[in-house]
Amino acid sequence: MKTRFHKEHIIGALGLAMLSYGSWMGLFVVPPMSHFQEVGRIFFIHVPTAWNSLLVLTGSFILAVGVLINRRAGWDAALTASVEVGVLYTVMLLVQGSIWARPTFNTWWTWDPRLLTAAILLVAFAGVLSLRSFAEGRDRRMVWTAAATIVAYVDVPIVYFIVNWLPRGIHQPHSFPSTVSSDYHTALRLNAFAMLFIAIWFIARRTRVILLQDAGTAMSAPPPAETGSDGKPMVAGVEG
Amino acid sequence: MSTSRKFLTSCLAVGLAIAPWGSLLAETGNDDDSAPHGINTPADTDPASGDDDSSDTSSTAPVMAKQPAAPDVVTEVCDDDLDNDGDNLIDCEDLNDCASFPTCGQIQGGWGWVISAYGLSFAALLAYTLMVTLRLRALQQRGKS
Amino acid sequence: MNVLSQCWAVLAKDILLDLRGSSRLTAVLFFAMMTLLLFSFGSEPDPESMRRHAAGYLWLALLLSSVLALGESFRSEVEDEALEGLRLLPVDPRALFYGKALSNTLFLLVLATILLPLSLGLYGAEVRGSLTSLIGFIILGTAGLAAPGCLYAAMTSQARGQDVLLPLLLFPLVVPVLIACVKGTGLCLSGDAMGQASSLLSVVATFDLVYWSVCGLLFGKVIDE
Q1: Which stretches of chain A sit within 8 Å of chain C by CB?
Q2: Per the CB < 8 Å rule, is A172 touching B118?
């Protein structure tokens, strides 16, 4: 039987191609950094992951507000999917950062403000997913997930701006075109958009999974009991 | 164990297998002579060239960050490729201020760490892709049956 | 009844309940005291080290106690469907939230008032900096714990796994408040030569403002079924 072609595959394929080319450029084409040497090539996967984790979580905030306004199952599924992808990217970001820190600063972890707030971000949004799994009832689950996402989002601007507020930490300041060598712009931009497209593909696919799961749960629930003319429940289609 | 779980587990295993080898390579030290020695060596400077045009380093020594030094800074900032304290010594060359700075020294095993970081990232993306795809397929099959 | 008078009524109800049956305060107080003692067992018995970390131990004890206090505060609402009764009256959900948040802030303030001299005595610390700033940190810090705590306690009291969920959800959110209060309290105890306490107070006040407004807006949605 022919399966439908979902449009998100185009975005996913584009993301994959861009990630491959951008990573190849970052690994083999651009010159090594004068300060971090070869280890600095982790920059081309770490910074795009960081940007997109915050972007995806910002998207989840918007979806959460939408869920509270319209209470639609599709929005709720997309919200859950985007929180999940945001958590995935945040885990990747912390692992990449630790691997970069080990050879350059001789430690896997340090109590730098940005690292700390990023770890808090991970735990906060992982808590949102846990809350969802413990909540009973479709509407309650929807509203609680949205409310918890909105409150947890308070940490996202903190993660982004903390390097400006507390610049004495070990983490580098923001990466802008003006602060990054022009040799690195192409690879960085390619990977940034690649991670975004891949995130969109992930969210679309995961949304479909959640909607199908919820539809399956609704179908497998027992039907409401039929009642006879006297208001009493019928047994095997017979009144009384 | 179902086929999908075996597949997922295998992919995770492959991804996790890359990381320790990368780390092992990094920890035992990568004493490659072709790697630039010294943190401040421009990455693609031609050693045979006698031209000592130190005024134009932007094309031969790409830098991580270019930030102008504040005029009233008297302490050297050790990782900005600028002479902040005006003693004609930049970053790690300024031993008075930067001798103990963490990255003033050769970084051992660079490629091993890079392989670990990229390998784990790609493995995570692949694992999530497989999880979502296999789950979707299973649900679609169940819907048809 | 307007929102303010409803809020006051909810606050008065909670205070009355706590005064009549003081089991919640007693239980949480003894838990907090035990926590303070456990911290001293967990670290090396060096008087100077204990004195330096007294602020941290105090706030950690307050944080862990707040989880118990908040959970208990909403468990009493969920039992016998008292929360639904309040909603049906109808009580404005904002009044309900701010009343509960204020009552929990008051509860934690009472707890902190008892724990502060206790921790000063246990760890050999003294107030060398500004007492006013110290009181400010205690008030703003407990308010910063109470607001998001009330929102999450309202959710988790109606869910399975509430004992696990409430700390899991609450702790990441209150870390900025905790860090600022620990640092600020430490400066008030050891002396604040650089005058940093006021900027830390403004950090805590900012977080309080954000949490009290955001959580107040969301509370009504969360308790509706």
Answers
A1: 68, 116, 120-121, 123-124, 127-128, 130-131, 134-137, 139-140, 143-144, 146-148, 150-152, 154-155, 158
A2: no
Summarize pLDDT for C117-172 with one digit per residue, the tens: 999 988 888 888 889 999 999 999 999 999 999 999 998 888 877 788 899 999 99
Please tell me the total number of residues recorded for chain A in this structure: 240
Is C55 an 8 Å CB contact of chain A?
no
- SS3 state of residue A238: strand
B108–chain A Cβ distance below 8 A for any pair:
yes
Residue B6, token pair as written in the block: 């075996």
A18 CB contacts (<8 Å, ≥6 apart)?
Answer: A190, A191, A193, A194, A197
Nearest chain B residue to A182 by CA: give it: B62
Residue A105: how many CB atoms within 10 A of its CB? Answer: 15
pTM of the entire structure?
A: 0.75
Which distant-in-sequence residues (6+ apart) come within 8 Å of C13 by Cβ? Answer: C99
Which region holds residue A71: left if phi is over 0, alpha if psi is between -120 and 50, else beta?
left
Does the distance separating the beta carbons of B26 and A46 come in below 8 Å? no
DSSP bridge partners of A37: A33
Alpha helix stretches (DSSP H) within chain A: 8-24, 43-70, 73-105, 113-134, 138-152, 155-165, 185-220
The answer to whether A137 and A217 have CB atoms below 8 angstroms apart is no
- pLDDT tens digits, one per residue of C74-106: 887 777 777 777 777 778 888 889 999 999 999
Q: Rounded to whole angstroms, how far apart are CA atoms C179 and A222?
A: 51
Residue pair C145/C206 in contact by the 8 Å Cβ criterion: no
Distances C129 to A64, C44, C133, C155 between C-alpha atoms, Å = 44, 26, 8, 40
Cβ <8 Å between A41 and B63? no
| Cβ count within 10 A of residue A53 | 28
**Which H/E stretch holds residue C109?**
helix C93-123
Rg, C-alpha atoms of chain A:
23
Distance CA A230, CA A240 (A): 8
Domains in chain A: ranges and CATH: 9-28+39-211 (1.20.120)
Q: Is the peptide bond before C90 cis (omega within 30 degrees of 0)?
A: yes
Angle between helices C93-123 and C47-78 (to 10 degrees): 150
Higher pLDDT, C220 or B36: C220
E-strand stretches of C58-210:
none
Tokens matching residue A238: 């017979």
